[in-house]
Amino acid sequence: MGNPWIAFLLVPLVKIIVILLVVILMAAYLSYFERKILAYMQIRIGPNRVGPRGWLQPIADALKLFVKEDIVPSRAEKLVYMIAPALITAPALVVFSVIPFGADTTFFGLLKQPMPPYLTDINIGILFVLGVSSVGVYGVILGGWSSNNKFSLMGGMRSAAQLVSYEVPMGFSVVAVLLMAGSLSMVKIVEAQKQAGVWFVFPGIVAFFIYIVCGVAETNRNPFDLPEAESELVAGFHTEYSGMKWAFYFLAEYANMVLISSVATVLFLGGWLRPFPNAAALAFLDVIPPFIWFAAKVGFFLFCYIWFRGTFPRYRFDQLMALGWKVLLPVSLANLLVVGLGVLLMGGPK
Description:
This protein has one domain (about 75-345). It contains twelve helices and no strands. The protein is mostly helical. Helix 2 packs across helix 10 (about 245-270), helix 6 (about 150-180) runs antiparallel to helix 8 and helix 10 (about 245-270) packs across helix 11. The model has no long low-confidence stretch (mean pLDDT about 85). The longest helix is centred in the N-terminal third of the chain and has 40 residues, at about 1-40.
C-alpha cells in the first residue's frame, strides 16, 4: 500500500517544494545579479559588503523585509490592500507547475524507472499558463486602488491598460507556435521541435520577437516600466506598500520574469533540447544534461532583461500604447496568417 502513496502524494509534494524553493531563490538572487550586471555596465562595483563579494546581499534584504514595520495607510481599503499582494504572487508561482524543464530522468540513477522532473503535463498547458498568469493584473490594479494614493491609482490604471494591450499580440505569437506544434501541451511542443529537427525560433522568428517585446511589457520592465516609473509615480502601484507585502510584489515581478523566460524557452528554443536535436554532427552535445540546457536558455533571457534595463530609455505612455496596438497587433496578425498558410501548405503539423 505504500507505493500508491509515494506515487500520488509524496513525489508531487517533494516536487512542489523543490520548485517553489528554486523559483524563490532565483527571484532573490536575480535581484543580486541585476544589481551586479548593471553596476559593471556603468563601471561601478555593485553590492559587495554582505558576505564574500556581496553574495549574501539577497539574504540580508529578505531578513530586513521580514522585520521591517508593516505600515497600513489609515484611509486604505484594508482588506483589499492586504489581499492584493497575494493575488499577484500566487498565480506567478502556480504556473510553474506545468513548465517542463527537463526530460524524463532517473535522477542520476537514484530511481529504477525514469520519471519527469517537472510537476505535471496537461493537454492545455500553454492555455493554463496564459489564463492563470493573467490573474496577476488584479493584484496590481487592486493594490493601486486600495492604497488611496493618487500615484498608486495612476500606476494601477497604467498597468491595466498595458497588460490588456500587450496580452493580445503575445497571444497571437503563441498561437503561431501552436499551429506549428499542433498541440497545447508544453511537453508536446518541445517534442514537436525534436521531431522537426529545428527550434521554432527559426521558422517563427517574427513571433519570437513579438513574444519577447510583449513579455518585457507584461512584466513591467524597462523600457516598459510605466506602471512603476520612479521619476513620475514615486513607485507606482506599490508606493504605499512596505515590509513583507512589498516583498510579495518584488517576488512576483522576478518570478514573472523567470516564467516569461521559461515559456519562451519551451515555445521557441526547444526547451531542454540541444541545438538541431536530430543533427548527428552535434551528438557530442548530448553529454550536457537536459536541465542544464533549459537553465542556460532561461539565463540568457534573464540577462537580456537586465541588458534592456541598462540600455533603453523609458517609453512615453502614448508611445507604449501606439506600439502595442498600431505595430505589434497588426504584425502578429499578419505573421499568424503567414504561419497558418505555411503549415497548411506543408500538410499540417507532423
